[in-house]
Amino acid sequence: MARPGVWHGWKKLVAALLVVANAVHGLELDISSTDSLKNAASTAAYGTMHMYGGNATGAIPGKLPGTWWEGGALFMAMIEYWHETGDTTYNNEVSVGMQWQAGAGDYMPSNWSSYLGNDDQMFWGLAAMTAAELEYPAYGKYSWLSLAQGVFNTQVARWDPSTCGGGLRWQIWAYEAGYDLKNTISNGGLFQLAARLAYYTNNATYADWAEKIFDWCASTPLLNTETWNVADSVGVEDNCTTQGNNQWSYNYGTFISGAAYMYNYTNGTTKWEKAVNGLLGVTLNTFFPAKYGGNIMSEILCEPTEICNANEILFKGLTAAWLAFTSVLVPSTYSQIIPKLQGSAEAAAQSCTGNNNNSCGVRWYTKAWDGWTGLEEEVSGTNIFVANLIANNRTRPVTSTTGGNSTSDPTAGQDDHSTSTKLSPITTGDKVGAGFLTAGFITFWMGLVVWMVIGH
Ligand SMILES: *[C@@H]1O[C@H](CO)[C@@H](O)[C@H](O)[C@H]1NC(C)=O
Ligand SMILES: *[C@@H]1O[C@H](CO)[C@@H](O)[C@H](O)[C@H]1NC(C)=O
Ligand SMILES: *[C@@H]1O[C@H](CO)[C@@H](O)[C@H](O)[C@H]1NC(C)=O
Ligand SMILES: *[C@@H]1O[C@H](CO)[C@@H](O)[C@H](O)[C@H]1NC(C)=O
Ligand SMILES: *[C@@H]1O[C@H](CO)[C@@H](O)[C@H](O)[C@H]1NC(C)=O
Ligand SMILES: *[C@@H]1O[C@H](CO)[C@@H](O)[C@H](O)[C@H]1NC(C)=O
Ligand SMILES: *[C@@H]1O[C@H](CO)[C@@H](O)[C@H](O)[C@H]1NC(C)=O
Ligand SMILES: *[C@@H]1O[C@H](CO)[C@@H](O)[C@H](O)[C@H]1NC(C)=O
Ligand SMILES: *[C@@H]1O[C@H](CO)[C@@H](O)[C@H](O)[C@H]1NC(C)=O
After folding, report:
1. 117 or 17: which leads in pLDDT
2. Can you spell out the DSSP letters for 350-404?
3. Which residue's CA is the nearest one to ligand 3's atom 9?
């Protein structure tokens, strides 16, 4: 997919010249004030929904142009926004979109399901999980919890021990380029979802899966439990021994989040405490570079050279929200995480000063609008302001025994016959086909990057 953001070169110059003016007209943020954080969040959320056309006549609710997965990230941010500010302005559009794309209760809508990767579907499952945990008002056919369960059930049915001893493939279908890869965000995403389902429902089956997925990742170069390096992908052709080691914040964030829920669910076991602390250490060192003062988050692989694609612009916002909940679920991490969220929000506020309408830029560390404009920038801006509210307010996700009343359906998704949820045996034809598709790209993928072609 990789839609490049809109680059207004001349506006960069203007922006640079207007740094002083921005300080006057910009998005003012007093990090110690709840009202100020809410105002900043409200401005970014307005910018987000202004660019969301999904509810307009002729548009499809929840489906953004050129991408499907991003709707899940967008709604996740807006559900958190609603919870922290009490602003219900966008709830109707969010709820309609969340249900519209639900398919048969598992986020495999027939319009798009034949092109999806496991990670695309997973983000919608995490958005639904967030709705359940934050007691987002029930709406429509499927309960938020059952939607998360539907994604879990359809994904564990794709667990694939036939190569590498387990793991989810990146893509769902053998004809998709990338089917030959097992990647961190798909597996780490399902790990997180399983951990959150365990925490919410107290059903040990989900915890067993979380543990199994985490341990499998640790058996491959995806996750190193000594250095706590998190890679991006491995390939099945060599039994998952070759590492695509690009460093993306959300790959770390998804493991930290899942480990934080497991830590809290297990009443503080050492295994998960070690994982949270190890992963957090690398994350804070890597994605809050010392050269920008050490407290401002940056997607280091693409921001300095301004090559972030639309997907990548969303990563640090997702990670910020996951870090905020981690600071609540693992209280010992709070003092480490809070200065990072604060420094990032202060810089982001200075970045959200574009187009004379508070458009957010891509890079927060420039402390001024950097000339980029897009929905993804607005979502990430919303995320960082809301993440501060989550952490400050110690927002604890509810569970089925602490007020959560979203209806459980442990069999959700299992009666979805519109899309096969079981891996059909891979025929030689499939293999040749996939091999053919990927052959031209494999060097690129393994050597350079797994561009998340997760939207169509
Ligand atoms: C801000 O301006 C940009 C560029 O013209 C536009 O794309 C965006 O929709 C505007 N946002 C708002 C909230 O007006
Ligand atoms: C969004 O669309 C739904 C269904 O089409 C409609 O019920 C709702 O009122 C719309 N909301 C807004 C804010 O336009
Ligand atoms: C903090 O959370 C509590 C409980 O969910 C809620 O009542 C309160 O409004 C929240 N405060 C803020 C500032 O979000
Ligand atoms: C599927 O496509 C049809 C035709 O464009 C559209 O009306 C419908 O809203 C779409 N459904 C989803 C879930 O995207
Ligand atoms: C592939 O890796 C798995 C798990 O690491 C291992 O159990 C299996 O023996 C390996 N297979 C081959 C052919 O090397
Ligand atoms: C955590 O502690 C609570 C209260 O003592 C207990 O009910 C629960 O079973 C424990 N959870 C686990 C996973 O051991
Ligand atoms: C789980 O999270 C809650 C809410 O922040 C916290 O009070 C509790 O101490 C956490 N449990 C553990 C074992 O740290
Ligand atoms: C859960 O509780 C809220 C308020 O307490 C209520 O509005 C909602 O309808 C309940 N949801 C379900 C599924 O019972
Ligand atoms: C726990 O979750 C598993 C997996 O979805 C399900 O099969 C089982 O019925 C659930 N148990 C309860 C008590 O809900």
Report:
1. 117
2. HH--BTTTTB--S-STTSS--SEE-HHHHHHHHHHHHHHHHHHTT-PPP-TTTT-
3. 84
Q: What pLDDT score does 438 carry?
A: 34
- Give 371 Cα–ligand 1 centroid separation in angstroms: 12
Q: Is the CB of 265 under 6 A from ligand 6?
A: yes
Tell me what pLDDT residue 415 has: 77
Q: Domain spanning 34-437: which CATH class is it, in words?
A: mainly alpha
Q: Terminus-to-terminus CA distance in the chain, angstroms?
A: 7
Q: Identify which of 397, 420, 400, 401 has the alpha carbon closest to the alpha carbon of residue 409.
A: 400
Please write the tens of the pLDDT for every residue from 155-165: 999 999 999 99
Question: Looking at 111-198, which runs of residues are DSSP E strands?
Answer: 181-183
- pTM recorded for the entire structure: 0.89
Are β-strands 372-373 and 6-7 bridged in parallel, bridged antiparallel, or unpaired? antiparallel
**Measured from the CB, is residue 53 less than 6 Å from ligand 2?**
no
pLDDT of residue 417: 61
Q: What is the pLDDT of residues 305-317, one digit of tens each?
A: 999 999 999 999 9
Pocket test of ligand 7: the residue of 262, 263, 264, 274 to mutate, having most ligand atoms within 8 Å of its CB, is 264
Q: Phi-psi bin for 141: left (phi > 0), alpha (psi -120 to 50), beta?
A: alpha
Q: In this structure, what token pair is assigned to residue 201?
A: 């429902």
Partners of 6 in the β-ladder: 373
Q: Note the pLDDT tens digit of each residue in 63-104.
A: 999 999 999 999 999 999 999 999 999 999 999 999 999 999
If one counts every other C-beta atom within 10 angstroms of the C-beta of residue 316, the result is 30
Q: How far is the CA of 364 from the centre of ligand 1 (A)?
A: 18
Residue nearest to atom 4 of ligand 3 (CA): 395
The answer, yes or no, to whether any atom of ligand 6 lies below 6 A from the CB of 216, is no
Measured distance CA(110)–CA(108) in Å, rounded: 6
Tens of pLDDT along 323-340?
999 999 999 999 999 999
Average pLDDT over residues 372-379: 98
- Name the residue of 143, 399, 405, 407 whose CB sits within 8 Å of the most ligand 8 atoms, as the mutation to test its pocket: 405
The response to whether residue 199 sits with its C-beta less than 6 Å from ligand 6 reads no
Residue 163 alpha carbon, nearest atom of ligand 5 = 1
Residue bearing the CA closest to ligand 6, atom 9: 266
Q: Could you give the dihedral angle defined by the CA atoms of residues 394, 400, 401 and 405, in that order, rounded to the nearest 10 degrees?
A: 90
Mean pLDDT across the stretch 141-154?
A: 98
Cα(266) to ligand 6 centroid in Å equals 7
Where in the chain are the domains? Answer: 34-437
